[in-house]
Amino acid sequence: MAEHYDAACLCGAIHLRAEGSPLRVGICHCKDCRRHHGALFYAAAIFPASAVRVSGAPRHYNGRHFCPTCGSSVFAESGEEIEIHLGSMASSDGLRPEYELWCTSREDWLPPFSGTTCYPKDRPDP
């Protein structure tokens, strides 16, 4: 059986299934992500868009998709990639963030996360 990851909003109206392993897993501290999630940072697993199936009818704002019923932020879409929020996944076991973005906005009282590379802003292009 192929590896897959399932995710959903709080009320269950939006479901996602990602097939295979993510391209990468990261954390973002930027002001936009903080406001969107109502949290100091958020973590996501990034998959090729072709590997993700979305069911339900999410709404979106600037590529950030959420449930219109319960308001849960579930995923973001950027180019040919979909970022599935780890908090929306049925299980995120084994998905360890490899990097942190926008560390210039990172709260100084947060403890360091082991094994992550901290970028001042966005990741450099590969």
Automatic annotation (TrEMBL):
InterPro entries: CENP-V/GFA, Mss4-like_sf. The keyword Transport does not apply. Keywords: Lyase, Metal-binding, Zinc. GO terms for molecular function: carbon-sulfur lyase activity; metal ion binding. Belongs to the Gfa family. This is CENP-V/GFA domain-containing protein. It comes from the Bacteria. Pfam families: GFA. Coiled coil: none annotated. Residues 5-100 form the CENP-V/GFA domain.
